[in-house]
Amino acid sequence: MKFIKNEALGRPDLKDYKEQKKMAVTLVLDNVRSGLNVGSVFRSCDSFMVERIFLCGITSVPPERDILKSALGATESVEWKYFGTTKEALELLQSEMYRIFAIEQSDSSTALHNFTTDSNSRYALVFGNEVKGVDPELIPLLHGCIEIPQSGTKHSLNISVCAGVVLWRFYEQLVLKIRE
Question: Going by fewer Cβ within 10 Å, which terminus of the chain is more open, N or C?
Answer without folding.
Answer: N
